[in-house]
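Render this sequence as a predicted structure.
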Amino acid sequence: MSGDLPDYYFRVRENGALVFRIDTENRQRRIDMDQIAVVNIRNGEIKPHGDRSLSDEDMEVIQGWINDRREVLEERDVDDILRAVDHMNLATQWAQSRATDDQLETVTDALLLAMHDLRTVLVRKKADRLMKANKD
């Protein structure tokens, strides 16, 4: 393990993180993780843990983590959608070249409805963007 540990550790959870301050300056020379806050990434809420008060440095580090985490999640969203495009192409190839009639019967309605729903949303959003661009 590296000798230079960060001062803070963020245990990621579904909608944010638990924030710990790392302490290695103790007599046993072990790593102590002291929970100092809970972060909600969706609304940006930072709640001190227990009866703690957070320092300006704590708040600055936590806010920086929130900003970085939101960036990572946005990048992952786009990457997930691009992977979905790849999967749609693979599904098309599978349907055309390898799928049996029974397999197609199993997936066709679900795929058609999902694709119709997606197309409807994409067309509406594109029209909204075009209308907005024409107004500007």
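Summary. Strands lie at 8-13, 16-23, 32-40, 45-48. The helical segments are 56-97, 101-135.
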